[in-house]
Amino acid sequence: MAQSRQRSERRPASGRNQNVERGNGGELHQLAEGETPVLTTALGTPVSDDQNTLKIGERGPSLIEDSHFRDKIFHFDHERIPERVVHARGYGAHGYFETYESLAKYTRADIFQRAGEKTPVFVRFSTVAGNKGSFDLARDVRGFAVKLYTKEGNWDLVGNNIPVFFIQDAIKFPDLIHAAKQEPDRDFPQAQTAHDNFWDFISLMPESMHMIMWIMSDRAIPRSFRFMQGFGVHTFRFVSADDESTFVKFIWKPKLGMQSVVWNEAVKINGADPDFHRRDLWEAIQSGNFPEWELTVQLFDQDFADSFDFDVLDATKIIPEEILKPIPVGRLVLDRMPDNFFAETEQVAFMTQNVPPGIDFSNDPLLQGRNFSYLDTQLKRLGSPNFTHLPINAPKCPFAHFQQDGHMAMRNPVGRANYEPNSWGMGPREDPQRGYRSFADAEQGQKVRLRAESFADHYSQARLFFNSQTPPEQRHIVMALTFELSKVQTPAIRERMVSHLLNIDEALAATVADKLGIRKMPSPADAAVPPRDDLEPSPALSIINNGPESFGGRKVGVLVSDGVDAALFEQLRTAVEKEGAVMEVVAAKVGGVDAADGTQIEARHMIDGGPSVLFDAVVLMLSEPGAELLAKEAAAKDFVSDAFAHCKFIGFTSGAEALLAKAGVDADADEGLIRLESNKTAEKFVQACRKLRLWAREAAVKL
Ligand code: HDE
């Protein structure tokens, strides 16, 4: 009887030899054209059979001598490392930073000395509360961590997409994060703050109120990493060659303008595409549409800092841009995805304490605590003090030190000397001129555990933020607060929150209280300092006020049916692409449709897999019979009614009216519904889309 030994077909040769390991000599075994590399163990032993373990007889017990199996399964069993305790879900990309002009007047940082200097960077965006496998469109802060591989060491600017933070002192961080993440007895909810523990803690921490306004705003549900700002949050210092210090706040501004989604959309995106933000960044970079941000700095001195009644060391405060204009100093371009997610995005280790000469810290107690914390977290996650040997973490400039040994040491000092000073004339020496010099601030005082009086105002800037929003944005804050607090089951916590809101804006508090069904208005929370009502609104804080000038970088979803006008389809494609936007086709079948002239139009999505929440604007390019057929499909009706409810621009051909009607949308409802007939209307449609949303519709749809 023939042996029934199952083997796989040998893979066809790919012509790529990237899976061939280097041999001892460091050389690659060169593969002949068409040759398939031989599978080996981790130690290079060629493998004869990767389908069956070694057994005694076909049906007998497995043998422990099967070292190939042991090698393979051992390694698999150890693939996971602990996920980050916060910011577990992240996505990164490589790129460069280009300096505009020399900032030598303010800082000796090498990266800011020469106009046109390009510095390699790695950026990791993240959500904060959710686990590694959670969905992208959680209502959450986004991490915006930038590692700049400068010629004088790595500079990690570990920021967020929101310029303030929940707490003023690092000692409260474990409490904040415990309260925000899943409740420990039940391990839910995942990636959301809409639960009792979070709001219990927040309502007991008035210092968090400014941040609460931000996370209840649309900033916490960005449309894409590409359309969000980034902030260093803390006040840092620039230090010049003459050891003069200037305070600095760092702000990244997206070239494509800001954009967010609406909450109802976020909820649906999380079901339709939990990887929405990752996919967006991947697709943009892979297609050569490299996202770009401008780095701006707010520079000021001690006298300017003293002119405020808040403290620039308090991370719950901003300096409004209208009071101190951010100066553009360079641009960040992301142009390459990692080759391997784990090796780069997962193993990258950001640490706020990584600053090159010329950049220094302020006494912000949150920053000081962070400088202490990040090293521990990297050791815990990456398992060895040699995590700096990993290529993603290693500096790209020359470096020389006497650190040695430890788990997984890839590099050790060479030669006899592994200490300094030494008499052998070997190895590196310190350099007081070139080396890092901390700013010599005069510090003196008693040891105390105290919060400065200058940190006491918790409401004025929360009010400033709310007052700086446009009416739709204010509505979204009301709705977010109502939604989140409606998930809180303890009435006292809901009421405590309303008592804080009363110190921010009475109408806001009253509307939220009404929507929550709170019958008796609580009294305002005690405020350590009376909230100011004379702060000028800051238009820079609104997303809608700072949207894009073009529809570039955005995506149009075009729902097509058999029998459409191929010429119109092409005109639309041309207009969309001319704008720098992308068009994706949705159809009843993923195989696509036949246009009236017989041309085939391929689809990217079938209708159930391509809901309108995935697009910034939609077009219904349908023949009459096509629209009749689609009108019977729930997914097609949702495509239209959601696009309408989310205030998107909707282009449509006359044939599409049956579907609009079935979806409950009046074709003449407002100017966001645009009839497409000719070249000119395709362009008109794309121009209208530059506004991104027709917010005027929102009151009518009452989402
Ligand atoms: Fe972090 N934070 N953080 N954080 N943080 C971490 O470090 C911490 C804070 C931020 O993509 C951890 O590598 C403390 C503010 C980002 O890998 C950990 C405090 C801001 C990332 C840590 C803060 C941030 C982290 C977890 C209070 C905005 C992701 C894993 C004093 C300016 C970096 C890790 C990445 C990550 C500690 C507060 C931003 C535990 C103690 C404020 C973007 O070290």
Automatic annotation (TrEMBL):
<dbReference type="GO" id="GO:0006979">
    <property type="term" value="P:response to oxidative stress"/>
</dbReference>
<dbReference type="Pfam" id="PF18011">
    <property type="entry name" value="Catalase_C"/>
</dbReference>
<dbReference type="InterPro" id="IPR020835">
    <property type="entry name" value="Catalase_sf"/>
</dbReference>
<dbReference type="InterPro" id="IPR018028">
    <property type="entry name" value="Catalase"/>
</dbReference>
<feature type="binding site">
    <location>
        <position position="381"/>
    </location>
    <ligand>
        <name>heme</name>
    </ligand>
</feature>
<dbReference type="Pfam" id="PF00199">
    <property type="entry name" value="Catalase"/>
</dbReference>
<dbReference type="GO" id="GO:0042744">
    <property type="term" value="P:hydrogen peroxide catabolic process"/>
</dbReference>
<feature type="binding site">
    <location>
        <position position="124"/>
    </location>
    <ligand>
        <name>heme</name>
    </ligand>
</feature>
<dbReference type="GO" id="GO:0005829">
    <property type="term" value="C:cytosol"/>
</dbReference>
<feature type="binding site">
    <location>
        <position position="173"/>
    </location>
    <ligand>
        <name>heme</name>
    </ligand>
</feature>
<keyword id="KW-0575">Peroxidase</keyword>
<feature type="binding site" description="axial binding residue">
    <location>
        <position position="374"/>
    </location>
    <ligand>
        <name>heme</name>
    </ligand>
</feature>
<protein>
    <recommendedName>
        <fullName>Catalase</fullName>
        <ecNumber>1.11.1.6</ecNumber>
    </recommendedName>
</protein>
<dbReference type="InterPro" id="IPR002226">
    <property type="entry name" value="Catalase_haem_BS"/>
</dbReference>
<comment type="function">
    <text>Decomposes hydrogen peroxide into water and oxygen; serves to protect cells from the toxic effects of hydrogen peroxide.</text>
</comment>
<dbReference type="InterPro" id="IPR041399">
    <property type="entry name" value="Catalase_large_C"/>
</dbReference>
<keyword id="KW-0376">Hydrogen peroxide</keyword>
<dbReference type="GO" id="GO:0020037">
    <property type="term" value="F:heme binding"/>
</dbReference>
<feature type="binding site">
    <location>
        <position position="84"/>
    </location>
    <ligand>
        <name>heme</name>
    </ligand>
</feature>
<dbReference type="InterPro" id="IPR043156">
    <property type="entry name" value="Catalase_clade2_helical"/>
</dbReference>
<dbReference type="InterPro" id="IPR024708">
    <property type="entry name" value="Catalase_AS"/>
</dbReference>
<feature type="active site">
    <location>
        <position position="87"/>
    </location>
</feature>
<dbReference type="GO" id="GO:0004096">
    <property type="term" value="F:catalase activity"/>
</dbReference>
<dbReference type="InterPro" id="IPR029062">
    <property type="entry name" value="Class_I_gatase-like"/>
</dbReference>
<dbReference type="InterPro" id="IPR011614">
    <property type="entry name" value="Catalase_core"/>
</dbReference>
<keyword id="KW-0349">Heme</keyword>
<feature type="domain" description="Catalase core">
    <location>
        <begin position="40"/>
        <end position="428"/>
    </location>
</feature>
<dbReference type="Pfam" id="PF06628">
    <property type="entry name" value="Catalase-rel"/>
</dbReference>
<keyword id="KW-0408">Iron</keyword>
<keyword id="KW-0479">Metal-binding</keyword>
<dbReference type="GO" id="GO:0046872">
    <property type="term" value="F:metal ion binding"/>
</dbReference>
<feature type="region of interest" description="Disordered">
    <location>
        <begin position="1"/>
        <end position="31"/>
    </location>
</feature>
<dbReference type="InterPro" id="IPR010582">
    <property type="entry name" value="Catalase_immune_responsive"/>
</dbReference>
<keyword id="KW-0560">Oxidoreductase</keyword>
<feature type="binding site">
    <location>
        <position position="370"/>
    </location>
    <ligand>
        <name>heme</name>
    </ligand>
</feature>
<comment type="similarity">
    <text>Belongs to the catalase family. HPII subfamily.</text>
</comment>
<feature type="compositionally biased region" description="Basic and acidic residues">
    <location>
        <begin position="1"/>
        <end position="12"/>
    </location>
</feature>
<dbReference type="InterPro" id="IPR024712">
    <property type="entry name" value="Catalase_clade2"/>
</dbReference>
<feature type="active site">
    <location>
        <position position="160"/>
    </location>
</feature>
